[in-house]
Amino acid sequence: MANSRKKVHEISESDDDVDEISESKRARASSSQPLQLPSTTRRGSDVPPCPQGFMCARTSVDHVQTNSHEYRVRGFYLTKCDGLQTKFNADTFTRSLKQILHEDVDDQLESAVHFSYVYDMEWLLNQYPQKYRHLPMMLVVQRRQDLFELLIAQRQVYRNVCLLPVELARFGSHHSKMILLKYKHSLRIVITTANLYGPDWGRKSQMVWVSPMLKKNSQHKVAPDSNTGFRSALCTYLRSYQKKKLHGLAESYMNYDFSLIEKCFFIGSTPNSINSGLVALDSVLTKNVPALANENPVIFSFSSIGTLGQDDAAWLRQTFGRSLLATDQSMKQNAGIEDINNDNIQAIYPTIDEVRTSFEGYAAGRSLPYSEKVHKKQRWLSRFLHHWKADRVGRSRAAPHVKFYIRTSLDYQQTFWFMMTSANLSKAAWGNLRMKAPLSYECGVLYVPDNPMVTDHVVIPFDLPPKKYSASDRLWVQDSCYAEIDFQGNTWDPRKGGSISVAW
Fold first, then answer.
1. What GO cellular component term, any one, is given (predicted)?
2. Do both 293 and 178 map to the same domain?
Protein backbone atom coordinates (compact mmCIF):
# COMPACT_ATOMS: atom_id res chain seq x y z
CA MET A 1 0.00 0.00 0.00
CA ALA A 2 2.82 2.37 0.88
CA ASN A 3 4.40 1.94 -2.56
CA SER A 4 1.16 2.63 -4.39
CA ARG A 5 0.49 5.68 -2.23
CA LYS A 6 3.99 6.97 -2.92
CA LYS A 7 3.41 6.76 -6.67
CA VAL A 8 0.21 8.73 -6.33
CA HIS A 9 2.02 11.28 -4.20
CA GLU A 10 4.80 11.70 -6.74
CA ILE A 11 2.35 12.08 -9.62
CA SER A 12 0.32 14.56 -7.60
CA GLU A 13 3.39 16.67 -6.86
CA SER A 14 4.31 16.71 -10.53
CA ASP A 15 0.81 17.62 -11.68
CA ASP A 16 0.48 20.23 -8.96
CA ASP A 17 3.69 21.96 -9.96
CA VAL A 18 2.23 22.80 -13.38
CA ASP A 19 -0.03 25.45 -11.87
CA GLU A 20 2.21 26.28 -8.91
CA ILE A 21 3.94 29.06 -10.84
CA SER A 22 0.67 30.80 -11.68
CA GLU A 23 -0.61 30.29 -8.12
CA SER A 24 2.56 31.83 -6.71
CA LYS A 25 2.33 34.81 -9.04
CA ARG A 26 -1.28 35.42 -8.11
CA ALA A 27 -0.50 35.00 -4.41
CA ARG A 28 2.31 37.56 -4.56
CA ALA A 29 -0.06 39.95 -6.28
CA SER A 30 -2.82 39.45 -3.74
CA SER A 31 -1.57 38.86 -0.22
CA SER A 32 -4.00 38.96 2.69
CA GLN A 33 -2.72 42.43 3.49
CA PRO A 34 -4.87 45.34 2.24
CA LEU A 35 -5.11 45.65 -1.52
CA GLN A 36 -2.40 48.03 -2.72
CA LEU A 37 -4.38 50.70 -4.49
CA PRO A 38 -2.90 53.55 -6.52
CA SER A 39 -2.05 56.64 -4.51
CA THR A 40 -4.51 59.50 -4.63
CA THR A 41 -4.40 63.19 -3.87
CA ARG A 42 -7.72 63.09 -2.01
CA ARG A 43 -7.74 61.58 1.47
CA GLY A 44 -10.03 61.14 4.43
CA SER A 45 -13.71 61.91 4.72
CA ASP A 46 -13.85 63.91 1.47
CA VAL A 47 -13.64 60.63 -0.50
CA PRO A 48 -17.01 58.81 -0.33
CA PRO A 49 -17.12 55.02 0.20
CA CYS A 50 -17.20 52.91 -2.93
CA PRO A 51 -20.85 52.04 -3.71
CA GLN A 52 -19.84 48.50 -4.69
CA GLY A 53 -19.01 47.72 -1.07
CA PHE A 54 -16.70 44.83 -0.21
CA MET A 55 -17.08 43.29 -3.68
CA CYS A 56 -15.28 46.10 -5.49
CA ALA A 57 -12.26 44.81 -7.42
CA ARG A 58 -11.43 48.00 -9.35
CA THR A 59 -7.97 49.50 -8.87
CA SER A 60 -7.78 52.20 -11.54
CA VAL A 61 -6.50 55.61 -10.45
CA ASP A 62 -9.74 57.33 -11.49
CA HIS A 63 -11.84 54.95 -9.44
CA VAL A 64 -9.64 55.12 -6.34
CA GLN A 65 -9.45 58.92 -6.43
CA THR A 66 -13.22 59.17 -6.24
CA ASN A 67 -14.09 56.13 -4.07
CA SER A 68 -12.71 55.21 -0.64
CA HIS A 69 -11.92 51.57 0.21
CA GLU A 70 -10.57 52.21 3.70
CA TYR A 71 -13.70 50.70 5.23
CA ARG A 72 -12.70 47.16 4.25
CA VAL A 73 -12.39 44.77 7.19
CA ARG A 74 -9.05 43.06 6.81
CA GLY A 75 -8.56 39.33 7.00
CA PHE A 76 -12.08 37.97 6.29
CA TYR A 77 -12.64 36.24 2.94
CA LEU A 78 -15.00 33.91 1.16
CA THR A 79 -13.20 30.86 -0.17
CA LYS A 80 -12.88 30.59 -3.92
CA CYS A 81 -15.56 28.45 -5.54
CA ASP A 82 -15.19 26.45 -8.75
CA GLY A 83 -17.38 27.30 -11.71
CA LEU A 84 -18.27 30.90 -10.83
CA GLN A 85 -17.87 34.03 -12.91
CA THR A 86 -14.50 35.69 -12.38
CA LYS A 87 -16.04 38.65 -10.54
CA PHE A 88 -17.31 36.32 -7.80
CA ASN A 89 -13.80 35.00 -7.14
CA ALA A 90 -12.03 38.37 -7.08
CA ASP A 91 -8.92 38.43 -4.89
CA THR A 92 -10.23 41.47 -3.02
CA PHE A 93 -12.68 39.30 -1.07
CA THR A 94 -11.87 35.63 -1.82
CA ARG A 95 -8.98 33.25 -1.14
CA SER A 96 -8.08 29.63 -1.83
CA LEU A 97 -5.96 27.73 0.69
CA LYS A 98 -3.20 27.31 -1.86
CA GLN A 99 -3.23 31.05 -2.51
CA ILE A 100 -2.84 31.78 1.21
CA LEU A 101 0.02 29.31 1.62
CA HIS A 102 1.80 30.58 -1.52
CA GLU A 103 1.72 34.26 -0.55
CA ASP A 104 5.04 36.06 -0.61
CA VAL A 105 5.31 37.07 3.06
CA ASP A 106 9.06 37.76 3.08
CA ASP A 107 9.77 35.07 5.66
CA GLN A 108 10.69 31.38 5.70
CA LEU A 109 8.10 28.83 6.83
CA GLU A 110 9.49 26.35 9.38
CA SER A 111 6.51 24.26 10.56
CA ALA A 112 2.71 24.11 10.67
CA VAL A 113 0.05 22.78 13.03
CA HIS A 114 -3.37 21.89 11.62
CA PHE A 115 -6.77 21.45 13.29
CA SER A 116 -9.70 19.87 11.44
CA TYR A 117 -12.54 17.37 11.62
CA VAL A 118 -11.70 15.76 8.26
CA TYR A 119 -8.31 15.60 6.51
CA ASP A 120 -6.86 14.49 3.22
CA MET A 121 -3.15 14.46 3.95
CA GLU A 122 -2.08 14.30 0.31
CA TRP A 123 -4.37 17.15 -0.75
CA LEU A 124 -3.33 19.28 2.22
CA LEU A 125 0.41 18.97 1.61
CA ASN A 126 -0.10 19.73 -2.07
CA GLN A 127 -1.55 23.13 -1.12
CA TYR A 128 1.89 24.14 0.16
CA PRO A 129 4.70 25.30 -2.13
CA GLN A 130 6.93 22.41 -3.18
CA LYS A 131 9.82 23.63 -1.01
CA TYR A 132 7.69 23.45 2.16
CA ARG A 133 6.00 20.07 1.71
CA HIS A 134 8.60 18.18 3.72
CA LEU A 135 8.68 20.52 6.72
CA PRO A 136 7.46 19.29 10.14
CA MET A 137 3.65 19.17 10.06
CA MET A 138 1.23 18.24 12.83
CA LEU A 139 -2.41 17.21 12.43
CA VAL A 140 -4.61 17.50 15.52
CA VAL A 141 -7.36 14.97 14.91
CA GLN A 142 -10.14 13.15 16.72
CA ARG A 143 -9.41 9.49 17.30
CA ARG A 144 -12.25 8.28 15.08
CA GLN A 145 -11.45 4.82 13.86
CA ASP A 146 -12.15 5.33 10.14
CA LEU A 147 -10.28 8.62 9.71
CA PHE A 148 -7.46 7.90 12.13
CA GLU A 149 -6.59 4.58 10.49
CA LEU A 150 -6.54 6.25 7.07
CA LEU A 151 -4.20 8.98 8.31
CA ILE A 152 -1.88 6.41 9.88
CA ALA A 153 -1.70 4.67 6.50
CA GLN A 154 -1.04 7.95 4.67
CA ARG A 155 1.69 8.79 7.14
CA GLN A 156 3.72 5.85 5.81
CA VAL A 157 4.31 8.06 2.77
CA TYR A 158 4.38 11.48 4.46
CA ARG A 159 6.91 10.84 7.20
CA ASN A 160 7.23 14.53 8.07
CA VAL A 161 3.64 14.54 9.36
CA CYS A 162 2.85 13.62 12.96
CA LEU A 163 -0.63 12.96 14.35
CA LEU A 164 -1.89 14.30 17.67
CA PRO A 165 -5.02 12.28 18.56
CA VAL A 166 -7.82 13.79 20.65
CA GLU A 167 -10.25 11.67 22.68
CA LEU A 168 -13.81 12.95 23.01
CA ALA A 169 -17.01 11.90 24.73
CA ARG A 170 -20.03 10.67 22.81
CA PHE A 171 -21.61 13.39 20.64
CA GLY A 172 -18.42 15.46 20.87
CA SER A 173 -16.22 16.15 17.86
CA HIS A 174 -12.93 17.82 17.06
CA HIS A 175 -14.61 20.35 14.82
CA SER A 176 -12.15 23.29 14.86
CA LYS A 177 -10.57 24.26 11.54
CA MET A 178 -7.34 26.19 11.94
CA ILE A 179 -3.72 26.33 10.73
CA LEU A 180 -0.89 27.79 12.81
CA LEU A 181 2.02 28.71 10.53
CA LYS A 182 5.40 29.25 12.22
CA TYR A 183 7.90 31.21 10.17
CA LYS A 184 11.51 31.99 11.05
CA HIS A 185 10.65 35.47 12.33
CA SER A 186 6.86 35.49 12.57
CA LEU A 187 3.61 33.62 13.09
CA ARG A 188 0.45 33.49 11.01
CA ILE A 189 -2.97 32.14 11.94
CA VAL A 190 -5.58 30.83 9.50
CA ILE A 191 -9.08 30.03 10.79
CA THR A 192 -11.74 28.69 8.45
CA THR A 193 -15.11 26.98 8.19
CA ALA A 194 -13.72 24.43 5.71
CA ASN A 195 -12.24 21.05 6.58
CA LEU A 196 -8.72 20.43 5.35
CA TYR A 197 -9.63 18.33 2.36
CA GLY A 198 -10.40 19.12 -1.26
CA PRO A 199 -14.22 18.92 -1.50
CA ASP A 200 -14.68 21.56 1.19
CA TRP A 201 -12.60 24.06 -0.84
CA GLY A 202 -14.23 23.29 -4.20
CA ARG A 203 -17.94 23.95 -4.69
CA LYS A 204 -19.23 24.88 -1.23
CA SER A 205 -19.86 28.22 0.45
CA GLN A 206 -17.10 28.71 3.02
CA MET A 207 -15.11 31.47 4.71
CA VAL A 208 -11.57 31.98 5.97
CA TRP A 209 -9.85 34.50 8.23
CA VAL A 210 -6.13 35.19 7.83
CA SER A 211 -4.16 37.07 10.47
CA PRO A 212 -1.44 39.61 9.73
CA MET A 213 2.15 38.41 10.03
CA LEU A 214 2.78 38.48 13.79
CA LYS A 215 6.43 39.33 14.38
CA LYS A 216 8.56 37.48 16.91
CA ASN A 217 10.15 39.56 19.66
CA SER A 218 13.90 39.33 19.10
CA GLN A 219 14.56 40.12 22.78
CA HIS A 220 12.85 36.89 23.94
CA LYS A 221 10.52 38.95 26.11
CA VAL A 222 6.76 38.77 26.39
CA ALA A 223 5.41 40.68 23.39
CA PRO A 224 2.16 42.70 23.36
CA ASP A 225 -1.18 40.95 22.96
CA SER A 226 -3.97 42.48 20.87
CA ASN A 227 -6.26 44.91 22.67
CA THR A 228 -8.94 42.21 22.36
CA GLY A 229 -6.91 39.56 24.19
CA PHE A 230 -6.75 37.40 21.06
CA ARG A 231 -3.49 35.68 22.05
CA SER A 232 -4.68 35.04 25.59
CA ALA A 233 -7.90 33.40 24.35
CA LEU A 234 -6.07 31.36 21.69
CA CYS A 235 -3.48 30.10 24.18
CA THR A 236 -6.17 29.22 26.72
CA TYR A 237 -7.84 27.19 23.99
CA LEU A 238 -4.58 25.40 23.08
CA ARG A 239 -3.83 24.56 26.71
CA SER A 240 -7.33 23.11 27.13
CA TYR A 241 -6.32 20.09 25.02
CA GLN A 242 -4.06 19.07 27.91
CA LYS A 243 -1.41 17.98 25.42
CA LYS A 244 2.23 18.75 26.10
CA LYS A 245 2.97 19.76 22.50
CA LEU A 246 0.09 22.25 22.34
CA HIS A 247 0.90 23.60 25.78
CA GLY A 248 4.45 24.28 24.59
CA LEU A 249 3.06 25.96 21.49
CA ALA A 250 0.95 28.27 23.64
CA GLU A 251 3.96 29.20 25.75
CA SER A 252 6.02 30.03 22.66
CA TYR A 253 3.34 32.46 21.43
CA MET A 254 4.11 34.81 24.32
CA ASN A 255 7.08 36.01 22.24
CA TYR A 256 4.94 37.06 19.26
CA ASP A 257 3.44 40.52 18.86
CA PHE A 258 -0.34 40.19 18.41
CA SER A 259 -1.03 43.93 18.51
CA LEU A 260 -1.72 44.06 14.75
CA ILE A 261 -4.91 42.05 15.31
CA GLU A 262 -7.56 44.73 15.74
CA LYS A 263 -11.22 44.40 16.79
CA CYS A 264 -11.04 40.60 16.41
CA PHE A 265 -11.73 38.20 19.28
CA PHE A 266 -10.82 34.51 19.32
CA ILE A 267 -13.89 32.50 20.39
CA GLY A 268 -13.19 28.87 21.23
CA SER A 269 -15.21 25.94 22.55
CA THR A 270 -13.61 23.13 24.52
CA PRO A 271 -15.01 20.25 26.58
CA ASN A 272 -12.49 21.05 29.29
CA SER A 273 -13.80 24.51 30.16
CA ILE A 274 -17.28 25.62 31.12
CA ASN A 275 -16.11 29.19 30.42
CA SER A 276 -15.70 28.49 26.70
CA GLY A 277 -18.22 28.44 23.87
CA LEU A 278 -21.38 30.41 24.55
CA VAL A 279 -20.04 31.66 27.89
CA ALA A 280 -17.00 33.17 26.15
CA LEU A 281 -19.11 34.73 23.39
CA ASP A 282 -21.63 36.06 25.90
CA SER A 283 -18.84 37.66 27.93
CA VAL A 284 -17.22 39.39 24.95
CA LEU A 285 -20.52 40.73 23.62
CA THR A 286 -21.57 42.00 27.04
CA LYS A 287 -18.29 43.86 27.55
CA ASN A 288 -17.85 45.24 24.04
CA VAL A 289 -21.26 45.80 22.41
CA PRO A 290 -23.53 48.60 23.68
CA ALA A 291 -27.15 47.90 24.58
CA LEU A 292 -29.23 47.34 21.46
CA ALA A 293 -32.96 47.17 20.90
CA ASN A 294 -34.26 43.61 20.85
CA GLU A 295 -35.75 44.02 17.39
CA ASN A 296 -32.26 44.25 15.85
CA PRO A 297 -31.92 40.71 14.47
CA VAL A 298 -29.17 38.13 14.60
CA ILE A 299 -28.91 36.30 11.28
CA PHE A 300 -26.82 33.15 11.04
CA SER A 301 -26.07 30.22 8.75
CA PHE A 302 -24.91 26.73 9.72
CA SER A 303 -24.58 23.23 8.28
CA SER A 304 -25.67 21.01 11.16
CA ILE A 305 -28.34 21.10 13.85
CA GLY A 306 -28.28 19.35 17.20
CA THR A 307 -31.03 18.28 19.57
CA LEU A 308 -32.26 21.62 20.90
CA GLY A 309 -35.18 20.62 23.12
CA GLN A 310 -38.90 19.95 23.01
CA ASP A 311 -39.76 23.62 22.44
CA ASP A 312 -38.04 26.81 21.32
CA ALA A 313 -37.73 28.11 24.88
CA ALA A 314 -35.66 25.17 26.10
CA TRP A 315 -32.34 26.41 24.67
CA LEU A 316 -32.70 28.37 21.42
CA ARG A 317 -34.47 31.37 22.94
CA GLN A 318 -33.80 31.14 26.66
CA THR A 319 -30.05 30.46 26.41
CA PHE A 320 -28.65 30.89 22.91
CA GLY A 321 -30.87 33.75 21.77
CA ARG A 322 -30.55 35.65 25.04
CA SER A 323 -26.74 35.57 24.82
CA LEU A 324 -26.72 36.83 21.23
CA LEU A 325 -29.36 39.53 21.64
CA ALA A 326 -29.15 40.87 25.20
CA THR A 327 -25.63 42.33 25.10
CA ASP A 328 -26.18 44.62 28.09
CA GLN A 329 -26.08 42.92 31.50
CA SER A 330 -29.24 44.64 32.73
CA MET A 331 -31.02 43.57 29.55
CA LYS A 332 -30.00 39.96 30.18
CA GLN A 333 -31.60 40.13 33.60
CA ASN A 334 -34.75 41.90 32.47
CA ALA A 335 -35.35 40.56 28.96
CA GLY A 336 -38.36 38.28 28.84
CA ILE A 337 -38.45 35.15 26.73
CA GLU A 338 -41.17 36.83 24.65
CA ASP A 339 -38.57 39.41 23.53
CA ILE A 340 -36.60 36.68 21.75
CA ASN A 341 -38.55 35.23 18.83
CA ASN A 342 -38.47 34.23 15.18
CA ASP A 343 -38.32 37.88 14.11
CA ASN A 344 -34.97 38.61 15.74
CA ILE A 345 -33.54 35.07 15.56
CA GLN A 346 -33.17 34.39 11.82
CA ALA A 347 -31.59 31.02 11.06
CA ILE A 348 -30.48 30.15 7.51
CA TYR A 349 -30.50 26.51 6.42
CA PRO A 350 -31.13 25.05 2.93
CA THR A 351 -34.34 23.43 1.79
CA ILE A 352 -34.44 20.11 -0.06
CA ASP A 353 -34.72 21.98 -3.38
CA GLU A 354 -31.74 24.20 -2.57
CA VAL A 355 -29.60 21.12 -1.97
CA ARG A 356 -31.01 19.33 -5.03
CA THR A 357 -30.22 22.24 -7.39
CA SER A 358 -26.79 22.99 -5.89
CA PHE A 359 -23.61 22.37 -7.90
CA GLU A 360 -23.06 19.08 -6.08
CA GLY A 361 -26.70 18.03 -6.10
CA TYR A 362 -27.84 15.76 -3.30
CA ALA A 363 -24.20 14.86 -2.58
CA ALA A 364 -23.91 18.29 -0.92
CA GLY A 365 -26.23 16.89 1.73
CA ARG A 366 -23.45 14.68 3.07
CA SER A 367 -22.12 17.83 4.73
CA LEU A 368 -25.58 18.74 6.08
CA PRO A 369 -26.10 15.89 8.56
CA TYR A 370 -29.44 16.85 10.10
CA SER A 371 -31.91 13.97 10.39
CA GLU A 372 -35.68 13.55 10.24
CA LYS A 373 -35.37 11.45 13.39
CA VAL A 374 -34.22 14.54 15.30
CA HIS A 375 -36.39 17.03 13.44
CA LYS A 376 -39.66 15.29 14.25
CA LYS A 377 -38.91 16.03 17.92
CA GLN A 378 -38.39 19.75 17.25
CA ARG A 379 -40.60 20.76 14.33
CA TRP A 380 -40.97 24.14 16.01
CA LEU A 381 -37.53 24.95 14.55
CA SER A 382 -39.04 25.48 11.08
CA ARG A 383 -40.61 28.74 12.31
CA PHE A 384 -37.10 30.21 12.67
CA LEU A 385 -35.72 28.98 9.34
CA HIS A 386 -34.86 31.05 6.27
CA HIS A 387 -33.75 30.12 2.76
CA TRP A 388 -30.15 29.80 1.67
CA LYS A 389 -29.62 32.48 -0.96
CA ALA A 390 -26.34 34.12 -1.97
CA ASP A 391 -26.97 35.78 -5.33
CA ARG A 392 -24.87 38.83 -4.54
CA VAL A 393 -21.71 36.76 -4.13
CA GLY A 394 -22.71 34.26 -6.82
CA ARG A 395 -22.99 31.34 -4.40
CA SER A 396 -26.67 30.47 -4.21
CA ARG A 397 -25.87 27.10 -5.77
CA ALA A 398 -22.74 26.55 -3.68
CA ALA A 399 -24.20 24.59 -0.78
CA PRO A 400 -23.56 26.23 2.61
CA HIS A 401 -21.00 24.80 4.97
CA VAL A 402 -20.22 28.27 6.32
CA LYS A 403 -21.08 29.20 9.90
CA PHE A 404 -21.56 32.95 9.98
CA TYR A 405 -23.38 35.05 12.60
CA ILE A 406 -24.18 38.75 12.22
CA ARG A 407 -26.17 41.31 14.25
CA THR A 408 -27.68 44.10 12.18
CA SER A 409 -30.15 46.94 12.47
CA LEU A 410 -33.81 46.23 11.77
CA ASP A 411 -33.39 47.43 8.17
CA TYR A 412 -30.13 45.41 7.79
CA GLN A 413 -28.21 48.56 6.81
CA GLN A 414 -25.94 48.69 9.87
CA THR A 415 -23.85 45.94 11.46
CA PHE A 416 -22.96 45.81 15.16
CA TRP A 417 -20.82 42.64 15.11
CA PHE A 418 -20.21 39.53 13.04
CA MET A 419 -18.50 36.18 13.54
CA MET A 420 -17.10 33.40 11.37
CA THR A 421 -16.76 30.09 13.22
CA SER A 422 -16.80 26.30 13.02
CA ALA A 423 -19.66 26.15 15.56
CA ASN A 424 -23.04 24.94 14.29
CA LEU A 425 -26.46 25.31 15.88
CA SER A 426 -26.05 22.81 18.71
CA LYS A 427 -25.49 22.54 22.44
CA ALA A 428 -22.52 20.27 21.69
CA ALA A 429 -20.83 23.17 19.89
CA TRP A 430 -21.79 26.01 22.24
CA GLY A 431 -22.54 24.42 25.61
CA ASN A 432 -25.40 25.46 27.87
CA LEU A 433 -23.94 28.57 29.49
CA ARG A 434 -22.66 27.83 32.99
CA MET A 435 -24.71 24.66 33.37
CA LYS A 436 -22.73 22.52 30.94
CA ALA A 437 -19.52 22.92 28.91
CA PRO A 438 -19.46 22.26 25.17
CA LEU A 439 -18.85 18.68 24.07
CA SER A 440 -16.82 19.66 21.01
CA TYR A 441 -13.74 21.66 20.09
CA GLU A 442 -14.69 24.70 17.98
CA CYS A 443 -13.03 27.98 17.07
CA GLY A 444 -13.88 31.20 15.30
CA VAL A 445 -13.23 34.93 15.02
CA LEU A 446 -15.66 37.59 16.25
CA TYR A 447 -15.34 41.14 14.87
CA VAL A 448 -16.71 44.07 16.87
CA PRO A 449 -16.30 47.51 15.24
CA ASP A 450 -15.80 50.64 17.33
CA ASN A 451 -19.05 52.00 15.89
CA PRO A 452 -21.85 50.45 13.84
CA MET A 453 -20.58 49.86 10.32
CA VAL A 454 -22.31 49.83 6.95
CA THR A 455 -23.46 46.25 6.32
CA ASP A 456 -22.51 46.55 2.66
CA HIS A 457 -18.87 46.80 3.76
CA VAL A 458 -18.91 43.40 5.50
CA VAL A 459 -17.97 40.22 3.63
CA ILE A 460 -21.22 38.28 4.11
CA PRO A 461 -21.71 34.81 2.58
CA PHE A 462 -25.50 35.14 2.12
CA ASP A 463 -28.04 37.72 0.96
CA LEU A 464 -29.83 40.10 3.31
CA PRO A 465 -32.61 40.24 4.23
CA PRO A 466 -33.16 36.48 4.36
CA LYS A 467 -36.47 35.01 3.19
CA LYS A 468 -38.53 32.98 5.64
CA TYR A 469 -39.64 29.44 4.84
CA SER A 470 -43.20 29.19 3.59
CA ALA A 471 -45.59 26.56 4.95
CA SER A 472 -44.73 24.27 2.02
CA ASP A 473 -40.93 24.54 2.32
CA ARG A 474 -39.08 21.55 3.74
CA LEU A 475 -35.61 21.70 5.19
CA TRP A 476 -32.96 19.22 4.08
CA VAL A 477 -32.68 16.07 6.19
CA GLN A 478 -30.08 13.48 5.35
CA ASP A 479 -31.98 10.32 6.25
CA SER A 480 -34.92 10.71 3.82
CA CYS A 481 -35.26 9.48 0.23
CA TYR A 482 -35.60 11.96 -2.66
CA ALA A 483 -36.78 10.72 -6.05
CA GLU A 484 -36.63 14.01 -7.97
CA ILE A 485 -33.49 14.23 -10.15
CA ASP A 486 -30.80 16.59 -8.86
CA PHE A 487 -28.36 18.84 -10.76
CA GLN A 488 -25.96 15.92 -11.23
CA GLY A 489 -28.67 13.61 -12.57
CA ASN A 490 -28.98 11.59 -9.35
CA THR A 491 -31.62 10.66 -6.81
CA TRP A 492 -30.95 10.20 -3.08
CA ASP A 493 -31.44 7.05 -1.02
CA PRO A 494 -29.62 6.98 2.34
CA ARG A 495 -30.26 3.23 2.61
CA LYS A 496 -27.99 2.75 -0.42
CA GLY A 497 -25.28 5.19 0.61
CA GLY A 498 -26.75 8.44 -0.70
CA SER A 499 -26.64 9.65 -4.31
CA ILE A 500 -27.87 7.11 -6.86
CA SER A 501 -27.05 7.58 -10.54
CA VAL A 502 -30.04 7.46 -12.85
CA ALA A 503 -29.75 5.72 -16.21
CA TRP A 504 -31.06 8.05 -18.90
1. nucleus
2. no
